[in-house]
Every structure is written in C-alpha cells, then in structure tokens.
Amino acid sequence: MLDQPRQETTGEAPEEILHRVFGHPDFRGRQEEIVRHVMAGGSGLVLMPTGGGKSLCFQVPALCRPGLGIVVSPLIALMEDQVAALRQQGIAAAALHSDLPEEQAREVRRDLGRGAVKLLYVSPERLTLDGTLDFLSRRDLALFAIDEAHCVSQWGHHFRPEYRGLGLLAERFPSVPRLALTATADPRTVEDIRAQLRLSDSPVFRGGFDRPNIFISAAPRESERGQLRAFIKAASDGTGAGIVYCGSRARTEQTAEWLRADGHDALCFHAGMEPEAKREAHRRFARGDAVVMAATIAFGMGIDRPDVRWVAHLDLPRSPESWYQEIGRAGRDGLPARALLLYGAGDIALARHRIQESPAPDEQKRIERARLEAMVSIAEAATCRRRILLRCFGEDGPENCGACDVCRNPPRLFDGTVPAQKLLSAVLRTGRRFGVGHLVDVLRGRMTDKVAQFAHDRLPTFGVGKDFSDQAWRGVARQLVAMGALDVAIESHGELVPTDAARPILKGEQKVMLRAETVTAAAPRDRAGRGTPPAMAGDPLFDALRGWRKREAEAQGLPAYMIFSNETLASIATMRPQDAEDLAMIPGVGRSKLERYAEDVLRVVREAG
Ligand code: ADP
Ligand code: ZN
C-alpha cells in the first residue's frame, strides 16, 4: 500500500485527472460523455470493444467523486494487474479476493478502515458477503464499476453465477452510480445484463466497435504450420506478444511445442491446467518480450497487455462475438496489429453437429446456430470482412475497409455451377461414403489403390475434373459445406453427404457462385506501411529506453508496459525531451510517473547523445 494518508478527492475536474494522472491529452470516443454522466450520479451500461478504453470511464469519475470507488472484476490476475498499473500512476488502489494471503487481506482492510484506499478491486463473491456490504453501507462511495459485465448473463460465454448477486447493489445502494462495462454487443446478452443488474432504466453507451488498426484475414486451412509461420513472420515486431487460439487443450500443447522448436518463446494455457501453472503462464505472458501463447478460449479475460501484435485462430470460433473479443486483444496500444483465422469444412460441420446434438433448449440452439452461420459467412466472405463483422454488432462499416484481406486482395468469383454438380455427382455415384481426398482423386482421374479397389475408375465422373487443382476442388467442397449443400459426417469418417439443398444444384435449378481459391498463407506484407510494425525498433535511443524499462520492470516485478508503453517510449525517442517539463508533454507521462522516472529517462536521453 502506498504511504498516503487519506485519499480525499483533489477537487480536480475529469480533464485534469485525465492529464495529471493518466497523461492523456484527450478523452476518446464516448469516454467524456460517460464520465460526465457518472459524475452527475448516473448509472449505465458501456459497450465498447476490447481495447476501446473502458477502464477510464470508471477510473476517472471514481477519482473525481468523493468516497471509495468499487470495481467488481471476475479474475484475480486482472485485478492484480490493474491495481499494479494504478499504483504506478500514483493512485491508492487495492484488491480484495479469495487468493489474497490473510496478512495482506488484513492490511487492505486496515487501509480501508483508515480511508487510505480510493479504488478497491473486489471479486463478486467477496463484495456480496454480508460483512463487506455492511462495511460499505457505512462508507461514502464514489461508484460501483462492474467490469466484464457479460459474466452475469447465461447467454454469454463466460457466465459466472457469483455475478448474479450483484443485482442487489441497486437496492442496497440506490444513490451510488453503477456502471457496467462489457465488450459484448450481442443484443440478447445486453438485455440480460440490463435486467440482471437493474439497469433497464439507465442508458446504454455504445462505443464504435471498429478497431481499424487490426488487419483481419481468414484462409482455408492448407498447411497449418506453414500458414501460421508466414503470418507470425509478417505480424511480429520482435517485442510484442502473440496469441494462437486452438480448439482443444491437446492442440494448445502441440502448437506450443512446435513453436518452441521453431525458436519462439511459446507457452500454452487451457482450463485443465493447475491454478498455479495458469498463474505462471499469465505472468510470463504479461512480462515476456516476443512471447507467444497457444491457448484455448479459457485464456482471455485478464490479458491487459497493450502490445499484443497478433492473434491467430487455428479453428473456427463459435460466433463473431467470441472471435471479435479474442482478436480485440491485439493492438490495444493503437499500433498496427493482425488477426488470422484458419478454418476448414470439418470445423464448420463439427460446430453444426455439436449444436444439433447439444441438450440445450431449442431456442438457445436456434441462437447458437445463427451465431455460427454468421461466423461461417465471415470466414467465407467475398466482400469486406470487416463490414460483415461490424454488421453483426449493428454497425455499418465502410464498403471497403482497406484493412482486411478481402479488400486488399479481392477474390475472383466465378459461376461454379458445373464444378459443384460434378462434385455432388461424384459424391452420389461413390455412394456417399468417402471423404474429400478420395473424391478429389476420382474427379482428377487418379488411379489410386482405393480407386482400383472400388472400381471408381469406371464411373462417368472419373477424371472429369482434371481442369481443377486439388486445392481448387477442396475449395469447391468446402464452399458447398459452408452453404449447406454438403454435410461432413463427423461421427463416422468425415465422408461428404449431400443435403436437401444439393438437389436444386444438381438439377441445374440453382446457380452457384464460388470463390476462386488462391493460396493465401497470410495477408501480404504491406507496401504502404500500414500494418508494418512500429518503425522505431532499431533506433538506438528507443532501444536504450527499452533496455532501461526492462531493468526497471524487473526490479519492481512488473510487466514492462506498466512502466511506459512502447508508444510513449517511441515519442520520447522522437521528441528527445531535455527536461521534466518537456517530458511531461509526452502522452502517457502522468505526474506520478514523471516523479518516479524523469531523472532516469532524461539521463538515458542525454547519454544517447
Ligand atoms: P478496454 O478495457 O476497453 O479493453 P482499456 O481501458 O484497457 O480498454 O484501454 C485500452 C488502451 O487504450 C490502454 O492502453 C489505455 O491506456 C488506452 N487509452 C484509453 N483511453 C485513452 C485516451 N483517452 N487517450 C489515450 N489512450 C487511451
Ligand atoms: Zn475490408
């Protein structure tokens, strides 16, 4: 705990806090409006994408308003990181959760008792204990912030039963503003959050959902490792982190292993790991240079690192919401970042079957199916991917975003009715019993053992597809699966099976437009400079500052970005401040950091000449 006596408000206006404490020149997007609303005592729900700047929406009013600010957070790692970052900024923040050693918990309670805490992070189960509520009811409270508010909803993917109890805050503390925040924009989840948290009469603040600095791309899985290697090479700047999302625990382990063999500092993370191992993985991810995490979607909340340069998915996510939340972890610092989605016909079919067979009520299945199909249409997009994605969040993006693979390199569409018919008829004539590999052999007229064994060389479809490459045929098959004309028999051997939707195609009643497959390992490296890593790497002063930051972070046991962000170091290297006054002008340098680090930073600048 900081050695500060009482944390009264300083009587500063929100803008002053923004400048002095956080070192930011301006509010972003709807932050200012939200801060004003809370300052005036209002409650509400904030919807902003990951990296959109939700934290300031409650941190600033919590510091301006009299009393203690309470932040409910679902994840211990997240709390600890935020508290450490706030203390770096000179704010008396503390966390109270079940993992805290009793001695430290006592210390926090003592500090609370003597009014030496301004911002308290607390887990929902702690907050709703009678003792905590009684204590808080005798205190002046600035606000309640409910972070990751989608945890309250069963419709979301991170339901936390303990969040349900938070509804009582409305009755217990009717005059204290309550601000719920989430990156989820799915309408059903949003309504559920409002109902559960008694916010139905309060406004919803929707930030723009676009994150234009993230270049998004998707490609059919061809050679997974080769594609991922090329992507990492294009996306990594040698310092920031990367995340590979995998569909299963085993895949996280295998992926981390081959990435390590490739020379990466790769870790893995999934829900089946011991709590201690998970914490360690979190810690190493937060602190490492150029670290790569291969993880299931269990790795998510609590990643505050602003310099995640890329996020790759090796398997199809189940909804645009989850995909966007996951790729949104890239580029929070506003610098160029990249996302790659790899997927195949098998993923699509598997996800459909899972929903089909799940014991969930029909209504929920219907919703999950709609989400999945939206995801498939993003993967198979022939027009701007970002536009399709943003439409899922009720937003109209530009016709051409210029920062997705489709805009950059538009696919060629062709009338694929005849190839579709050839493939479907090969499926029927071989008795609906074969996977795509064998069907491609038949179409291309390849005399394999299997073809000989089943005498498929005598079929009229044998060799009718010599004009297409193997890859092109797999593309036809995948697109037919995506459009629902073919199914993949997941429960047996992955054979392709026609559905009712195949009939009009076979009969020539329905035209099929297909995308010509191009080998896209990754988005091409950008010539225009957009999408390239920060240009400062290699600058001697920038490197010297990074060296100093690394030593400082290690000495304090903190992630480097909490000392200063790359962006701030890059500005320092460019501006070459001569004194503390110059340094204070640089974005990201608040007063507390100025007091702590001005001397060191100015020395590094001087020594670099
Ligand atoms: P979220 O919680 O919505 O995912 P954060 O609150 O972590 O996003 O903010 C994301 C990043 O944007 C952080 O690095 C933060 O410092 C930065 N940021 C937020 N608001 C501003 C602002 N007004 N000016 C400059 N940077 C900001
Ligand atoms: Zn686009």
UniProtKB/TrEMBL annotation:
Query: Which segments constitute the HRDC domain?
Result: 535-609
Among CDD domains, the record links this protein to: DEXHc_RecQ
User: What catalytic reaction does the record list?
Assistant: Couples ATP hydrolysis with the unwinding of duplex DNA by translocating in the 3'-5' direction
- Pfam families, per the entry: DEAD (PF00270), Helicase_C (PF00271), HRDC (PF00570), RecQ_Zn_bind (PF16124), RQC (PF09382)
Q: Which SMART domains match?
A: DEXDc (SM00487), HELICc (SM00490), HRDC (SM00341), RQC (SM00956)
The source's superkingdom equals Bacteria
The biological process GO terms on file are: DNA recombination; DNA repair; DNA replication; SOS response
Q: Which GO terms describe its molecular function?
A: 3'-5' DNA helicase activity; ATP binding; DNA binding; four-way junction helicase activity; hydrolase activity; metal ion binding
Q: Could you tell me the EC number(s) of this protein?
A: 5.6.2.4
Cofactor(s), names only, from the UniProt record: Mg(2+); Zn(2+)
Recorded hits in InterPro entries, A to Z, give: DEAD/DEAH_box_helicase_dom, DNA_helicase_ATP-dep_RecQ, DNA_helicase_ATP-dep_RecQ_bac, Helicase_ATP-bd, Helicase_C-like, HRDC-like_sf, HRDC_dom, HRDC_dom_sf
Give the EC class as a word: isomerase
Span of domain Helicase C-terminal:
227-378
Concerning its family, UniProt says:
Belongs to the helicase family. RecQ subfamily.
Specify the protein name.
DNA helicase RecQ
Source species: Roseicella aerolata
Quick one: which gene encodes this? Answer: recQ
